[in-house]
Each structure stands twice: as C-alpha cells, then as structure tokens.
Specification:
Chain lengths: ~575, ~575
C-alpha cells in the first residue's frame, strides 16, 4: 500500500503544479493511512481548495500508467529542476553523501525520488483516495527555514476501506475524552496547576462520586473492609518492599522531612501490609480483604501524558487480600468474578479482553528469584482462569516483579490498548515483610497476597467511560440527570417546585429559568447530553403534571410527579 | 506555690531518710502541679510504698514550722554530708563556680539548697498534696551515671484543687485519643509507614466515611459544588499565589518531574482559583462555592507530631467561595452559620470559642501590604460576627498573610487549644490571579474570596471527637453500631438472620458467633463501646423477637425485628 500512497504524493505534486504554476514541490512520502506532499506555493491555498486539487488528481490519474526510472547526475538534476530550489538542495546533499540520484517519471511528471512505487496509480480505484487537510510545515522540520504548505491525503486499497476509516476517525474524534471532557465541562487540564494533574470539575466530580459509591458497594458485597492510608511512605517501607530495587524508575524523587526521606507512593501494598501487621491474626480471620480508593503517583514523561488516561497522580480502586495458601485459588476466582461484575455494571464488557501476564523465563533477573514459587503461582492462576472459562492470551515478560497477573485490557477509540483492571498473586511481599498468621495447628504460617483493582484507576476508567458512551452517560452516572424547563418565565414557580422535589430525592437536577426561549433551552439540554428534560407550561400546571422527554427515547409525555419520581428513581437504582 | 512545692520536696527527703536510713537524697525541685525528689535508695521501693512515705510526710509536717538559712563553707558541707556523695559533688561544683553555699533547715532536716521556700509547710492543708508515682532518672540526666529513684508528688493550694486536678488528669488519660485510638482499633501510628502519617483502620474509616457524608450533605444544603483537585501543584502556581514568599517554611521541598518542579500542596486555594478560571462568569453566577475534602501537606517537626491532632498530611473539609464585593458580608455570615450547624451536628458546641484573628498593625511586612483593604476586610468581618451575635476574642498578628480570619478554637482534654474550623476573607489572591467576572454594567470586576472549612481537618476533628465522646460515639458515628450475640452456638442461625437483616439495611453490625460465653461476649461489646447489642436465645427465637440492650440506656427489652429496625434507623438518621 505504501507504494501506491507514495505514488499519489507524486500525482498530487503534478496536480498542484498544473493548477498553481510556479509552485515548488519539496518532499512527499507515504504515511500511515495516506500520504502528504510539501509545497512552496505560488499562491496561498486553504482547505476549501482541496476539492479542486482532488478533481485534478482524478483527471490526471488515467494517464499515470507506467513508472520509468533513470539514474542521473547532479548536473542533470540542476538542469531539470532549475525552477525548484528544494530539489536542488536535496540533490546536492545526496551527491555529497555519494548517493545515487534517480528520476522517477509517471504521467509526464519527472521527479527526483529514490523510488518505491510498485503499481502505477492508474490501476487504482479513484474513489479510494481523498485529500484530507492542509497544515504548515517548516522545510526540513527546522523552524529557521521557510514554512511550507503541507497537503495531507488519505488512501486505502478500496473505497470501502477509505470510507470505513473516515467514519471511524470521525467517531473517534467525536468520542475523544479530551474533547468531550472540555465540551461537557467534566475535567480541566491546566498546565499552571501542573502537567498530568487534571482537575475534576463539579460535573466530573458528580460522576467520580458515583464511581466511588459503585466501587465501595461492590467491595462491601464481596466482604472487603475499607481503610485509608497516606500517599506518602518512608524510605524504609519501599526499601523493605523491593520497590526501590525494582520500581524506582516509575517513582518520583524522595522528599526530606525533618531528616527522614519520604516517597510519593507508587503503590499502596506496603501500607496495607502494615495495616494487616497491626494485629496478630488466626487462620479463622483469613481471608482479610482491605480496599481503598488509593492515591498513586507515577513518573511519566510530559510527552506521554494523555488527558485522563495517562496521568501523574491517580486514584486506584485498590485492594489487597491476605489469604491462606489453601484458600488462594478460590479467592482469586472470587476476585475475578468481582472484577467481571464491576465491568458489567459499568457497561464495559464488550470492549475488554484478558491478558495473563507471566514472567519471562529467559529474563529472570527482573523478577523475584524463586523458580518454584513462580511456577506454583503461574500454575495456580492458570487453573483459576481456566476454571472460570475466561478466554485470554498469555503474555511473557509482563508480570509484576512480585508475581503473575491477570489484566483486563481495553482499547480506547483510537485503538490504543491500556490495562483497565488487574488481579495479581504475590508470594514475595509477605516474605519480605515477614507476615504471619496462626494456623489451626497453633503454628505461625505465611499468608499469600492478592493485589487487585475493582474498577481500575478512576481517572482512566472515567476517560474510557466518556469515550465509550460518547459523553451520553446512563442516568445513574450523568452529572445532570434531569433539566427542568419552564416554557416562559411565568412558569418558573411551578418549575422550581418540580426542581426542589427532584433535589429532595437526591436527583441531580438543573433548573433553566433564564431568559432564552424553549427551543434554546431544549437544545442546551441536548448539547449537554442530559438524559431527561421536563418541560412545564400552562397545560402542565393546569393538569398538575410534568411533560418528560428523553435524550435516548424521545418524547415520553405527561405524567404525575409521583410517576416521574418513581420512573427516575427506579432507573437510577437499576444503573441501566 | 512553687515555694511550698519546693518545701515539700525537702519534707519528702526527710521522710524517705527516716523510713529508709542510708538513702541519699540528690536534687528535688518544684515542678508544674507539684515536685519531685531524686534518691539513691538503700532499698528498692515501688509505687506501693508511696502511701507509707506519704503518711510519714503528714506525720512530720506539723513540726516543719520555720525555715532557717545558713551560709556555709565547702568544708562544712563535706562534714555535714559526708554520707551523701551527691550533695558533695554539687557543693564542689558550686564552690568552683564561686557560688555561695547555703544550708536550709526545717523540722530538723538540714539540706544543701539555694532557697526559695516562702511559707513553711506546717501552714498548709496536709490533704492538699500527695505522692504520685516513682520513675527512674539518671543522676544529672546523664545515662552514664547511676540511675536514681525519682518520687513525684502533686501539690496545690487546697485539697479541692488537688482533687480536681487528679480527676481531670484521670479523665484526660481515659479520653486520650492516642490511647483510645489503639484500644478501640481506630487508627494506627506506624513509624515504618512514616512519622506523622497515620493509617485509618477499618473502624476508623467507617467513622471517616460518616464524617465525609455529613460534610458533603451540609455543603450541598448551603449550595456548594464539589470538586476534586490534586495534592500537587506546579512551582508557578505557588509563585503566583505568594505561598512561596509567605508560607515556604510550612511547605516540603519540591519534587522534580521531568524538568518541572512540583510542590506537595500546603493549601488548595490556587487549585480552586484555577477551577474558577476555566470559564468566564457573570455576576448572576456568583457566589460560586467550591468544596473539596482536600489533601494538605505541612512541614512539621517530628517532635511536634501528635496522634491524629498534629500530622504531616491531612484532609481538610475545604472550600472556597467567589463572591461579589457587595455580597461579601452576607455570604460570610452564611459561612459562619454553616460552620455552627456542623459543629452542632458533631456535638462539639460546648467545647469551642471564637477567635477573630487580625493583622498586627505594627508588624505589617508579614502581611499583604494594602492598609485600606485590610481595614475594609477587618471592618466587614467584625460587622458580620457582631451581627451574628457571636462572642469572640480579638487576636492581633494571627491573620493569614492574605486576610483576616475567624477561627473556632477547641481545647483538647489536656487543655491544649487548637483551631478546629476557620473562615477567612481574601482580597489578595483574586488580585494575584487576576480573577474576574462580568458585572451588571458589562464591565469586568474582581470577585472576593472566602476560604473556609466545614468541619475542619478530618484527622484533627476525629481526634477531638474521640476525646470528646471518650470513644463512646453516638450511633450514627459508631464503627460498629450493633453487635448480635447468640447465647449459645445453637442460636447462631437465628442470630445470623438478624445480622443479615441489619446489613441489608446498611447498619454496621457485627455477629459474635464464636465460642466464648454470653458474659464474655457482652463484656467485649461494652469494652468496644458498641452502642447496642442484641442477645438472642431460646426465648427470642420462640417469640420471633430480639432482645436489645444499650450502652447508654441499659436493658431495653424484647421487640420485633421491624421495631428494632425502625428504632435504629431513626436514631441513625437523627444523628443524636
């Protein structure tokens, strides 16, 4: 495909030169999904000129039937391209590097080019490519040089593939969580506060609180106890845990506090271990399950930050379980079931896949060195996921340094895959911290640990949810659940009554008693993707009813206040 | 009083020497609330010997009617104290420093002493002092020296004052939040995790969640919007706010992140300001009220840390309001009312006082330099608190660097006063961040800011609540609200039914289906200060009822499950 894309860049050059004589073409490679060509234009153009250029390309296309190649001297280049200072500059440089100079010609256009064209353009479906957009680009990427005009094009094997790509890209752009986050006022990325440190706006926070409640309810159901521990940890803690040996490159520099060194914590496992160690436990007390919406900090390069999906400080719906060795497999299965239940609750089941991450047996020094423990843990985990009937891929060299893990992966709208949820087995940290419980026989035994998240990291899960729902959240997650719209200002009092009733029932309502007209108010509700709006006018006041309309189901009609409350509260409770 | 306390130290020396001949008395000064005397004892003694010594002191007391003073030579000291190496060592040292050596004699006891006795002991009420406890103390505080026996005594002007002090101290010890925190398993101080970084246990976290819900409900009622912002901030943010100029000594060292400097935030005001600045606002939108349970970090020396009350990382029930200048006074009054409502809800009204903290007009350089703004803000705040009818004390030089504040102060059980809640006016930060709103006339105006906390810092408020309630929390705050106790194991099934019913209704219940007997189970409920326990045996199973007993009201008696639920849920809801 690259050969055709590259050829189209030549065709683009020919078309532009015909339409805008005197324009000089510079470079024009194939790229992912298409091609581009840079020009020093004789006349400034804009996106609106693209259809004309595209038409010219289609007009010339049938004549582009054959590529011919000719090895030339620098002199020949200078003669042929006396009108094009960019080609001459390149040719002079190639000559100095003793590279062979070649002309490639097609449809009458001679170009300085090193080749790579395979089929001639005339063989392709003229509807399988299109011009995309115009951008500025410095000659040779250097800002001291002249700014050239870069024309981007898209090209695929077939018209269908082109259309599918364009549609998918439009969809992805519409769903992009950074764009929607701003439009729907869900979060703020503010460099002044700090790169990689997003702020949750009031609307975003309403969703965050729902996610937190959802998490904690699920955790209570599965027998977890909630704890809260600080996002800092003393050096000694991470020395003992091995994080300073194995995880330092993901951690921030330590802070001195009155003579002691503290780290912003990269993980909360040591804190939960110390929580466990505040008491002596018996086998009867196990499993002990601690859960926390825990603050984590990770070293990320500025360039790798991405909206809510890759950040420097996040909150993990974290948890650590301390289990007897005999109880490990069953408890691990319970953990998986809980994660699956959480995923279903959020409506994410369709976009995930499972990844069973193991140690690289050929690269053991990155991992805790104990072959038999690794084999035991990996064997046990495989049994558990097989017994659950999960279909997964196995990935070597992706385990945590302390043990194997099962990751639930999801692709974002741009196709990039990230880990959403995780469950990990750990025999190492209990050893390092010398953890124990008293077994049935009165002897001290070592518990095993499971690390897991319930619905992953709140920031990332939020980002995925925005994209998954394209901002049109289900009722229970919507930051504004109902908007109350009086038709005219003389209906404001009744509207306020309805609004107050909703508020009293903990429904997140908004009252739009401003000056704009009904159409404007409804449009605003739609733009903000509010699930329901209620219009009240003379008819409703007279009937003592409300008129309900839905984002997803359209006009629902008049109903009493009691019916309204019942309908909304049931739908919120169902989390559908 | 110090003179009498010092005299009693002499009397103690005389008594010990009479009861334990050959014992050498070393030093014996007056201290806060009493005195001590160090001895090299001829026989080891313990606290159980104190009554005998105390009786001897009272026996000798009537003869201690007059102090006589005599200036002596080192020779005379050596002769008189040939039996006491400590006195000789001191006398030799004093002589070398050319100090006058003096003997003070009373009731026949000659002692090397520099004086300070005022009234002779015989004049005092013999019931106004008592011996307190025995401790070890190295001679001259140097661990290379011999360990001496230190006997502590308490002494006051009157018997009543002594009794009051003893009672208050017992009460304080019983209520000490560090002691109760451990006994009731509410939080953990773990040096391995880090000094000043307490962990909230499952029970403590249950209380924390209640406090969070309480805070957020109150904030919703007063029209706040909840936001969530990170506990880190870029250097530029705190440069702009002035924290780096005025607050640096309370902040931790910055952390480098890929070339940028970040601070653990000491306050969240800049974050909320940037949240405000994400949009343009009209006067119609104001006041805007942001609330957050915000993470704060403060530099505290290790020696100043104290349980949950003085920590290095805490969560403030924080909030910032952006107000038109015309609306400032009324909004400030609303803020005060809200704080008072919160305080009442927590039952803390009786232990607080108000402190109106102003700039020091003689020491202005610590504060934002604008006399007219300070006068305006202080005047407005005084009007507001006067109109509310609060009685307060005025404190100069205790304002924030950006404006005056009203602090709600509370004393802990040891009499130490701390700030629990606060409300502050601020004209400075809106200026520094160039904040604005569009006023009625279409022009840009500067909003004023109010900084305030709802129920203060969760850690500190928790500490105060533990001490205030001596760990016997009201039902809504209790980590375990009801304990279900089957009389014998054959009642476990019915007990489990009751337990499940309570759980389903979100009541924090515990099922004690272990092997211990009824008495032990009830004792455990009492020791853990659980507000209610339910005993179920044959009678209850037959009658399909439960038998309820209360920590505070004793036996309540049999009732149906429905009655039980109704009673408990109503009491929880009432927050009484």
């Amino acid at each position: 495909m690259d050969g055709l894309r590259h050829s189209l860049a030549h065709l683009l050059a020919a078309s532009v030169r015909e339409l805008y004589p005197g324009s000089q073409n510079a470079i024009g490679p194939a790229i992912e999904n298409g091609f581009y060509q840079d020009f020093d234009m004789s006349k400034q153009i804009s996106d609106s000129d693209l259809p004309k250029i595209e038409a010219k390309m289609r007009e010339l296309l049938p004549k582009w039937t054959k590529w011919t190649k000719k090895v030339v001297t620098l002199q020949e280049v200078k003669k042929e391209f006396s009108w094009n200072r960019y080609k001459i500059e390149l040719a002079e440089e190639f000559a100095q590097e003793n590279k062979t100079l070649t002309f490639f010609t097609c449809g009458g256009l001679v170009d300085l080019c090193k080749g790579g064209h395979d089929l001639p353009p005339a063989t392709m479906d003229p509807r399988s490519f299109k011009l995309d957009r115009i951008a500025g680009a410095y000659w040779r990427g250097n800002e001291k040089n002249k700014m050239l005009t870069r024309i981007y094009g898209l090209a695929f094997e077939t018209k269908e593939k082109l259309e599918a790509y364009v549609k998918q890209r439009e969809e992805a752009e519409k769903r992009d969580h950074k764009k929607l986050g701003k439009e729907l006022d869900l979060f703020v990325i503010d460099e002044k506060v700090g790169k990689g440190l997003p702020l949750w706006t009031p609307k975003g926070t309403a969703i965050k609180f729902e996610l937190e409640n959802f998490t904690r309810e699920l955790e209570r159901k599965y027998g977890y106890q909630h704890v809260e521990t600080p996002y800092l940890g003393a050096e000694e803690l991470y020395r003992t845990s091995g994080h300073l040996d194995h995880f330092l490159k993901n951690m921030y520099a330590p802070i001195d506090m009155d003579g002691d060194k503290f780290y912003l914590r990269p993980m909360a496992c040591p804190h939960h271990i110390r929580m466990y160690q505040r008491k002596q436990w018996s086998y009867k007390d196990l499993p002990i399950r601690y859960a926390e919406i825990a603050d984590y900090n990770r070293y990320e390069k500025s360039g790798e930050l991405m909206g809510m999906i890759r950040v420097r400080k996040f909150q993990l719906t974290d948890g650590h379980l301390f289990v007897t060795p005999e109880g490990l497999k069953d408890e691990f299965k319970l953990v998986c079931n809980m994660i699956i239940e959480g995923m279903k609750g959020l409506g994410l089941t369709d976009i995930v896949s499972y990844r069973f991450s193991k140690r690289d047996p050929k690269n053991k020094e990155k991992y805790y060195p104990d072959d038999s423990l690794w084999n035991h843990a990996e064997g046990l985990m495989k049994e558990a996921v097989d017994e659950l009937g999960l279909s997964y891929i196995e990935a070597e060299d992706e385990a945590a340094f302390y043990g194997p893990k099962l990751d639930v992966q999801a692709k974002n709208v741009n196709g990039k895959e990230d880990t959403l949820f995780t469950a990990q087995m750990d025999f190492l940290l209990p050893e390092k911290f010398d953890m124990e419980y008293i077994d049935r026989d009165g002897k001290k035994k070592r518990p095993v640990m499971i690390h897991r998240s319930t619905i992953g990291c709140l920031e990332r899960t939020f980002g995925f949810l925005i994209e998954h729902y394209a901002g049109a959240f289900p009722l229970w997650l919507s930051p504004v659940q109902v908007k109350v719209i009086p038709v005219r200002t003389n209906h404001n009092r009744y509207a306020k009554e309805i609004f107050d009733l909703l508020k009293e029932n903990d429904i997140r309502a908004e009252l739009d008693d401003g000056d704009s007209n009904l159409g404007g108010k409804v449009r605003d509700a739609k733009n903000n993707k509010i699930p329901y709006w209620i219009v009240v006018g003379d008819k409703e006041i007279e009937a003592k009813k409300v008129n309900l309309e839905s984002r997803d189901a359209g006009q629902i009609g008049q109903m009493s206040k009691e019916e309204l409350l019942k309908k909304l509260l049931e739908e919120i409770k169902s989390k559908k």
